[in-house]
Amino acid sequence: MLENVKWLGHSSIEISGEKTIFIDPFQLKRSDPADLILITHDHYDHLSVTDIEKIRTPKTTIVVPASIKTYLQGNIRKIRIGDTLTFDTVVIEAVPAYNIQKSYHPRANNNVGYLITMGGVRYYHAGDTDLIPEMNKLSCDIAFLPIGGIYTMSATDAARAAELIRPKFAVPIHYGSIVGSLADAQKFKDLCSCEVVILSKGV
């Protein structure tokens, strides 16, 4: 189930299947073409125009939260929390992502995480978020959860999120670059009752 998934560092994920999907591409060292690029919010380490240009083609669709201002050109689709977009057999749904007691990602900004259904597998990329009540309603096969702390959940809170969501696999993200370390990822793994896969950074 994880054979089509690559962690590209920080919060960047590539999922291959009916479509090649990149989520929050940042500091990429590769230039494979993307069918879909999903952006969770407008911070530089999630909306990186330089990295988007490495993987976009004239056929690439870029999905961004409707709440952010972006000067990206091309095929841009805006999405709001609760919206669903369908691209052939791939279904993209926007869900909330926000901080509760931090000012970095206020709820009012309407940043998003994504639920992606492709090839019979449901993926959840949480974006930059704390442990929030809306996670009680989520279900997925694979959950990409931020564990670096400071701007997002800590490893401890991310493990609590995994307990709520109960994915088949949980994959730690948002560490190893700006904040967080492999030790945080290992702590997350130790605390989770579900299966955790710490992916090696792709190229």
Which properties best describe this structure?
3 helices; 6-stranded mixed beta sheet; alpha/beta; 203 residues; Metallo-beta-lactamase, Chain A; 28% strand; 7-stranded mixed beta sheet
CATH-level-2 architecture: 4-Layer Sandwich
**What's the alpha carbon Rg, rounded to whole Å?**
15 Å
Distance separating the two termini: 20 Å
- Decide which structural class fits the backbone: alpha/beta
Order of helices and strands: EEEEHEEEEEEEHEHE
Measured as a percent range, the helix fraction is 10-25%
Q: Could you list the spans in which at least 5 consecutive residues all have pLDDT below 50?
A: none
CATH superfamily: Ribonuclease Z/Hydroxyacylglutathione hydrolase-like
Q: Which fold does the CATH topology refer to?
A: Metallo-beta-lactamase, Chain A
Oligomeric description of these chains: single chain
What is the number of independent domains? 1
DSSP summary, beta strand count = 13
The major pleated sheet works out as:
7 strands, mixed
Number of helices: 3
CATH class: Alpha Beta
Q: Beta-strand level of the residues, as a percent range?
A: 25-35%
Q: What is the global morphology?
A: globular
Instruction: Determine the mean pLDDT.
Output: 94
Strand order, biggest sheet? 7-8-9-10-11-12-13
